[in-house]
Amino acid sequence: MSSENLPQNPERQPRKPRVAVVFGGRSSEHAISVVTAGAVLRSIDRTKYDVLPIGITPDGRWALTADEPGRMTIADRRLPSVEELAESTDGTVVLSVDPGNREVVYSEQGSVPKALGEVDVVFPVLHGPYGEDGTLQGLLELSGVPYVGAGVLASAVGQDKEYMKRVFLSYGLPVGPYEVIRPREWEQDPSAARRKIVDFAAEHGWPLFVKPARAGSSMGITKVDALDGLEAAIEEARRHDPKILVESLLRGREIECGVLEFEDGPRASVPAEIPPVTSHEFYDFEAKYIDAATGLVPAPLTEEQTAEVRRLAVEAFDAVSCEGLVRADFFLTEDGRFVINEINTMPGFTPISMYPRMWQESGVDYAELIDRLIQAALRRPTGLR
What we know:
The chain is α+β, with helices and mostly antiparallel strands.
């Protein structure tokens, strides 16, 4: 029989890239990560990508979760969690650390493990320690799986506000006065640590902001107006992180700017302004997520100020060797200077978050933003680069 008479195999259609959206996590920002994941799952292009939602519980279990964005919202001031979305109370998702095997496996007690297929790229929307700080990024590097956002070093530096500021200073970026109390200082001589903060206040004045050095979403931050409020502020910050950061008050306007990786390199969005929140001491967690205080997009700045803050945002992105995306937060001081406060390597993607709003105003809508981040991750190799 000639080969032309043999049954011909139809040409195989290329499969869609498979995106694992990983969310939740062990940090105090667990709920905000769930909300962010809900927004991503709601808007990702299902005609272009297959999607696998994976939640990480507060105790660190990787769980297969329902693909139901409607349940991943803040409702009646109640925060969502991965446990509510998990397919079972003991099922575990495992990602191979073999770079030649991107297979994801799901197992439950008393059942045969089930292969869930290969993952082409991970979209981690975890905030804070054990997810945004380089730990998850290191696991994905070992596994050889591409992922959205900053690499191990940039994620770690971007999470630790002390070393972030040190890097900024080394690149000549303007940074406000700060002091650090490390765990050993507090544990060995808390009186000396307190004196260090009091001396800082004597030099820079009250009020101060006492915050965890490695947390986000304004978790654990206290504005301290006088000495009698210092002890409670330290305790609150250390509840989130044994290392704390103390910053002086910079009087001025709060300005934010988004940076996104395009094919030709990083570009900055139009900036936004966070106006004073009259019902809160500052732009804290409740103001951001519970009471939904909103910013001004675009910020009412001059052309020169807009150009300057966009330039500084891209410089901050490059200084920390970021990839994918960054939200850079600044103060525009009363004397007209921009001072960088911090960057966020995985900013919130909730419907009210500033990062997607800034890019929407810049001409990149939410769905395109997600697509650009995934495509940038797929273009990038894992390993040294």
